[in-house]
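Lecture notes, continued. The same structure-token format from the folding unit now serves as the input rather than the output. Read the line below as a description of shape only.
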């Protein structure tokens, strides 16, 4: 029998890696700083997607489940309920790391956007080839 779930996950991984390759290529070849910032944002989001997918799909690391310990005033649940929960639950560590990465990525993008604005105000262009010439004093 064909496992369609594995085929779909494989397709998602291949597409995600393709997006990463395209963004790295675009960042290396596009001379405009704003386009580079957009591609950096896409690269960051794709990396976060991979981290979440690894947390959901790995199945190796299970979230901590404490049988017999109640952290609230609710009744204790049986071990069969905990086993069922641990089969369907995802690892929370990648999700926490992704939230942190989103905040840090946003801060970096805002900072780089501000630096880009200052470069444009000072040199009148966001093309890295022209910026290099203007900074060296070769172009007007």
């Amino acid at each position: 029998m064909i496992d369609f779930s594995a085929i779909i996950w494989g397709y998602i991984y291949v597409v995600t890696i393709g997006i990463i390759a395209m963004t790295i290529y675009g960042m290396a070849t596009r001379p405009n700083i704003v386009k580079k910032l957009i591609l950096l944002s896409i690269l960051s989001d794709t990396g976060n997607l991979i981290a979440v997918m690894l947390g959901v799909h790995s199945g190796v690391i299970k979230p901590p489940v404490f049988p017999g310990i109640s952290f609230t005033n609710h009744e204790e649940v049986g071990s069969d309920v905990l086993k069922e929960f641990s089969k369907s639950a995802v690892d929370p560590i990648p999700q926490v790391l992704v939230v942190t990465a989103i905040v840090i990525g946003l801060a970096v993008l805002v900072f780089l956007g501000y630096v880009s604005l200052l470069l444009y105000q000072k040199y009148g262009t966001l093309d890295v080839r022209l910026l290099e010439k203007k900074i060296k004093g070769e172009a007007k």
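Point for the exam: The two ends are 68 Å apart (CA to CA).
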